[in-house]
Amino acid sequence: MKHIRLFILFLFAGIITLSAQESPKREFRGAWIQTVFQGEYACMSPEEMKADFIRKLDLLQACGINAIIFQVRPEADAWYQSEIEPWSRFCTGKQGVAPNPMFDPMAFLIQECHRRNMEFHAWLNPFRAGTSGTSMLADSHVFHEHPEWFVTYNKQLLFDPGLPACRKYICRVVQDIVSRYDVDAIHMDDYFYPYPVNGMPFPDDDSFRAYGMQKGYKPEERDDWRRENVNQLIRELKHTIVKTKAWVRFGISPFGIYRNKKSTPDGSGSNTNGLQNYDNLYADVTLWVEKKWIDYNIPQVYWEIGHPAADYITLAKWWDKNAHDIHLYIGQDVARTMKAGDLTRKMELARSLRHVQGNCFWPANEILWNNTGIADSLKEHYHRHTALIPAYTHMYKGRPKKISNTRLTRTKEGYTLTWMTRGDREDPRNSQYFVIYRFAPGQSINLDDPSKIAAITRYTECYLPATRTKYRYVVTAVDRFHNESKGKKIKVK
Predict the structure, then answer these.
(1) Looking at the domain assignment, is residue 8 inside a domain?
(2) pLDDT band at residue 22, thresholds of 50, 70 and 90?
(3) Residues 227, 240: Cα–Cα separation, whole Å
(4) What is the domain range of residue 148?
(5) d(Cα 373, Cα 394) in Å, to the nearest integer?
């Protein structure tokens, strides 16, 4: 029998229990792993890459990270086997060249994340097709088949967001990923229309004449047309995901400022002064949240507390006020946070705001390098206890059935606890993983206390070490939306 010791998180006597405010039972704890401009991977063999991924996941898990956001499509390319787009040059060294021997990084990462009960979010850049023009594009890149779909801006090759064919193609890529891979979410960051360069207009005159003016937009309304292009993409992507696998989430990580207060006639923007999603990137993020076209929002609030143009506290409170009951997590810039000495105040603020349900750290490498002790702080304090992902009740508000047929088998070192679960596990509403809680004699059973979580596993068995204390255990089942069942009590004599 398999004893899944990897998930065992037994907490020994003497550990100081943090308050619920300091260590919530449910909290999104994500980390971004970027691949664009990361030359380290292209120099690795498949076996070296596997070993590196395992090393990183083990370290991030030890720091309490429960969700990995991995960049699988940086330049209309692929970190996975695709018949639509070529292999990424950041994966193999040359675009269109497959790993040798054949290796699917995304499939491997999904498997390894789920073994650790970490989520895998597939991160795609929707409109970016090349960071340095067309010189490095493989013959199989979509640019060569449809050059009319693309524009060049500030040396970047981009899909023209104004063309319906481009949106349809991007939806096709997402449908392909969701249908073939067991991803937990599709993720996109802040690159919709590109960051503007002073004196350089975006070259969409042709698409505006063909599709904007045709729909009645006047020249002075081009910004509204651009926003609607992005709105349509988001709406169509959500529809694509739902019809393919309804439980897969769709998340966005927008630039940290929606609109500056001075730019909004009603003063609804934040008291900031900087680049804006709405006016500069044509990303109407609060509309997507309000319409529930996305399932979670991770604004990149990368500034320091007290920043003169974009104060962290001001922005965190603004996003909290405009959450519209969609999961809200805060994107944290690790290097800037640690340099400013802001980690404690930022973590405390995030946990005090009503709608904020977690954080995502940029980039994961800063945690892996333990920049200014960030990894130590997460392990020893802020992520001292394991946390479940907050439940996505706006997608499904049910709970799986309790486990049944529990059985304890004595071994030389302790016990093996096994159980059965009801329902087909292919159904996302049924049990997907299990939480084992441990209580000492005299302790009340409180499943909201994260310090009592002894183990989390995706298997229907768990190893329990022998002790002189007569512990009581409670096992719950959790579905794909992270709804938790009622507990099943087990006594160990």
Answers:
(1) no
(2) low
(3) 20
(4) 27-382
(5) 37
